[in-house]
Specification:
Blueprint: H1 2-45, H2 48-52, H3 58-66, H4 69-72, H5 81-85, H6 90-109, H7 115-135, H8 139-142, H9 157-169, H10 173-176, H11 191-197, H12 210-213
């Protein structure tokens, strides 16, 4: 009798484990397909046309970036809104989507319906974007501008020194390269604001690329 009960108990445990495994497997499969579907939907949605359907001021939102180095110098593959404003990881896209609900609401109620309120809010909005980019160690910039691809021989001496210092101190791209798309200058902000915003982050310290190692002694 004891043997029968033991066998029955073992069989039930085996069945439970088998059912649990199948449930976990199916849940994982459904989750992966859902994430893939969400990512595909984002890829179809996030386009220049979609961004400018709300951020619709033609001169400062659409045309101004076309006058910058990102469009003029790299005209064959110009950077667009998404390259600078949205990171590629799916988790970041979901977070951005939640944050964008506020932008959608502001568009509906007409918070910025002409250039005057836009100009009043431009510096505050720019600072928010700069803070976000700094927090990610300028990952949007680094998607195209990798440390290894930078060639100091094409840079002025001062730029060589600044980049070499950045590798050692933990400074990041957005600390120096601000306003290159929407004509916003760092000198429009109070000195204490800029100082705090551009403070190097030790977590961002990186190895000096080989291209800079070769000239590091020469430019000290």
């Amino acid at each position: 009798m004891a043997t029968l009960e033991t066998s029955t108990s073992l069989l039930l445990n085996h069945v439970k484990k088998d059912v649990l495994f199948k449930v976990l497997f199916l849940s994982t499969l459904i989750g992966l397909f859902s994430l893939a579907g969400i990512n595909t939907a984002f890829a179809a949605k996030y386009t220049q046309e979609f961004c400018t359907s709300c951020h619709e001021d033609e001169e400062s939102t659409v045309q101004a970036p076309k006058q910058t180095i990102h469009h003029a110098r790299h005209g064959d593959v110009p950077a667009d809104c998404l390259d600078c404003h949205v990171l590629n990881p799916l988790a970041h896209k979901i977070i951005y989507e939640v944050q964008a609900t506020n932008e959608f609401l502001q568009n509906l109620i007409g918070t910025i319906d002409n250039l005057e309120p836009l100009e009043k809010k431009r510096l505050r909005l720019a600072k928010q974007v700069w803070k976000t980019m700094k927090k990610s160690d300028s990952q949007n910039c680094r998607a195209c501008h990798t440390d290894e691809a930078m060639n100091p021989n094409f840079q002025k001496l001062e730029s060589q020194k600044q980049h070499l210092s950045a590798f050692k101190s933990g400074a990041t791209c957005i600390d120096c390269h601000k306003g290159i798309a929407h004509n916003i200058r760092r000198d429009q902000f109070a000195k204490d604001e800029i100082k705090a915003l551009e403070m190097p982050n030790p977590d961002f310290i990186r190895d000096i690329p080989k291209t800079y190692q070769a000239i590091s002694e020469e430019i000290k």
